[in-house]
Amino acid sequence: MMFEPKRLHPISAIINFVKTLKDAALPLIIVLVLNGNIFSGEVDWIPLLIWIGVLLLVLGAGIIRWLRFTYRMEEGELRIEYGLIFRKKRYIPIDRIQSLDFSEGIFHRPLNLVKVSVETAGSTGNEKAEAELTAIRKEEADSLEEAIFQEKKRRNIRPDDDTWDTEEAQTEIEEPKREKVYAMSMKEIVMMAITSGGAGVVISGVAVFFSQFMDLLPVGTIYNEILDWIQISVLVIAFTALVILLVAYGISIVMTILRYANFSVFIDEDDLIITRGWLEKKQMTIPLNRIQGVRMEENLIRQPLGYASITLISAGGSVLKNDEHQLRLLPMIKKAEVGKILTKVLPDYDVVDDFHRPPRRSLFRYILRHSWFGFLAAIPISIFFFPYGLLSVVAGCFLAVLGWLAYHDAGWNILEDQLTLRSRGIIKQTYFMKKYRIQAFYKKQTYFQKRKHLSSMEVMLTSGGGRSLASCYYLEKSDTEEMMEWYRVKRVSEKPPEE
Amino acid sequence: MEQQPTQRISQRARTVWRIYGWIQVGIILLLTIGLTVTVFLWDWPWWIVLIGLGIALLEVLSFVWLVPSLRWKRWRYDVTETEIDLQYGLFIVTRTLVPMVRVQHVDTEQGPLLRKFRLSTISISTAATVHKIPALDEQEAERLRQSISSLARVAEDDV
């Protein structure tokens, strides 16, 4: 048991320093620039002194903050005391701790340290009872995790008894065993990086460049030096833009690879653990009972290749906000394999394949919904930029095709207590949801839909600090009613399978 | 034919909504008066004033005359032991189901105008959503808030 207050590893003073410096970088750089030319020997001493002074101050603050920060486990609470000027104490009851997430940055790796983020259940509300231990030794982090695990276990055994004695409880705790359920291959990671959203931009950029290039070639044979010169400069600009685009694309690929390298998913009793990263290692822990639903996404590039990505919708998840808004369980996977892996991770979710589709008469509505704005905008554009403006009609048609795709992909399915909704904006999304996780059910019908016996529906899930909406539009009215009945019937008797 | 929820909101809601409508019309009229002055001062085209008057007239027709009573007619709700069932919306008729298990807390609120008409708005929050029943009778809202919060307390929270 850890009773005595502990400090973080001294390196966290440096990390604090760097972090503050990063935030204050701009004013410092300005001071440095105003300083004039250092290398010419004409140094203006006062700004330089200010600069050094600020650096020392920031460094000092980092050190003091490190000195003041202590943490300990006491009376079933994680107690953190910190604060430079105002002393703050934050006590987090162990019961409320949902998970400890570990991550290792470049400072952490060589010294075998980790950053620990404490995530609590309170993140859905406004209170933010979370904490961050900037850098502690890895063994210490493990023993902290172990201590919390034991504490929770003991509480579960005797919930009313607060005076617990140590020996008895410790004997019955067995080592938690991790089971690896999924690992992403390097090939898949590279594939994912190449087909990411940035790819579309780059491909269109290349297309524009080559169309320019083709245009320019025959014109270049005209013996007009000035014209030639203009053309070449246009070419140079276009080429530079292309190179910048390609470099940006390359960087984003490398970043994605670094970030997702060694991506693996483990199951540890009631927790799901995701680890990933090369330079910076991340470990995220998601309690299985916090998972609200599953979303499968297929974008326009990956869908034809048969790839999809799976995202978990989880209540709480303050840690995720900093780096990515989404909790990717399977960032990119052959669609055919989704079911196989999902049954290992979340056995009670079924990947269904047959859907009830919206009726034929809603096709027009889908097309209208997606393209009315495009066509409307095309009218003034065509009039004002007469011959070329007519091209905007093509954009309208493209939107109409998207509308047709949306109609084609929409669908719903109910399997026991699971509702599956599929819809498409640009990305095709399939939501898998359990009845007892759905926060609210909306059935919507406009006057015109009523005449055609059509109706739309939406369901709301909790996710992170916010919400997540799954919908299906222009269904047969009886279909939405069926779903509504499904949602309301027997809700009381059937409780979620807690364990 | 599926059945609608049975409870209705207070009749006085229509009056309050009408007053809101008049307030909007008043704002538009003030703007129009301002425009009229500028038309005289700087020789702006006079039809700008007509647009302002037109909008005001439309608002009288819709937000004062038509919308409040239609909206009142559409608004229905039911609160049972297991769920909250709402129906509302003018053009898009929305039916919302919220299981009692999901309710996190219930609030009632009252602006000056609502207080004058002894009405209050009740808002029911889940972990992800907020649902409002506007303009219930004060006592009814009070009663409803208490019953929802006690019903929600019985139901186990597991988000």
Structure in words:
The complex is a heterodimer of chains A (499) and B (159). Chain A is α+β, with helices and mostly antiparallel strands and 499 residues long. In chain A, 44% of the residues lie in helices and 27% in strands. In chain A, the strands form 4 sheets. A 7-stranded antiparallel β-sheet of chain A has the order 7-6-5-11-10-9-8. In chain A, strands 14-13-12-17-16-15 form a 6-stranded antiparallel β-sheet. In chain A, helix 12 packs antiparallel against helix 14. The radius of gyration of chain A is 29 Å and the shape is globular. In chain B, helix 1 packs antiparallel against helix 2. Chain B is of the alpha+beta class and 159 residues long. The radius of gyration of chain B is 21 Å and the shape is elongated. The two termini of chain B are 34 Å apart. Strand 18 of chain A pairs antiparallel with strand 4 (92-99) of chain B, so a sheet runs across the interface.
Provide key terms for this protein:
heterodimer, A: 499 residues, alpha+beta, seven-stranded antiparallel beta sheet, 16 helices, 20 strands, 44% helix, disordered C terminus, B: 159 residues, four-stranded antiparallel beta sheet, three-stranded antiparallel beta sheet, 7 strands
Average pLDDT taken over every residue of chain B = 87
Strand coverage percent of chain B = 25-35%
Rg of chain A, alpha carbons: 29 Å
Residues in helix, % of chain B? 40-55%
Q: Segments of chain A where pLDDT lies below 50 for 5+ residues?
A: 123-129, 159-175, 318-324, 491-499
Number of strands of chain A: 20
Mean pLDDT level of chain A = 79
Radius of gyration of chain B: 21 Å
Distance between the termini of chain B: 34 Å
Secondary-structure element pattern of chain B, one letter each: EHHEEEEHEEH
As residue ranges, the low-confidence spans of chain B are: none
Strand order of the largest sheet of chain B: 1-2-3-4
Summed up, the helix count of chain A is: 16
Coarse structural class of chain B: alpha+beta
Q: Which structural class do you get from the secondary structure elements of chain A? A: alpha+beta
